[in-house]
Design brief:
Blueprint: H1 12-29, H2 31-36, H3 44-66, H4 69-74, H5 79-92
């Protein structure tokens, strides 16, 4: 699940996101952290609604990426197709070995 880019294998962005998430959770759990930013604790209903909307957004975005709806809407070729056509041209001209 690399989204719209090739999988790089670099775990640093994932680790950074996890550390920031834990930091936010700690900040929201302790009362002085909430008071500093003038925040209130969320109700269970708020958490469920936010999680549901985030899940729907993730699924919608995955659908848009998978079926390349943005490329179709804008009438452009995707990078994958351009790269594949370059390789095919190189293969036909004998410059690429498979």
């Amino acid at each position: 699940m690399a989204g719209g880019d090739a999988l790089s294998g670099d775990w640093r962005p994932t680790i950074l996101a996890a550390v920031l998430l834990v930091g936010l959770a700690v900040l929201l759990v302790i009362p002085p952290g909430r008071a500093f930013f003038e925040l209130r604790a969320l109700t269970i209903l708020n958490v469920v609604v936010i999680a549901g909307v985030a899940l729907l957004w993730a699924l919608l975005l995955r659908f848009i990426w998978r079926f390349r709806l943005l490329e179709r809407l804008l009438g452009i070729e995707s990078v994958d197709k351009l790269h594949a056509s370059d390789q095919t041209a190189d293969l036909n001209e004998g410059r690429l070995s498979v």
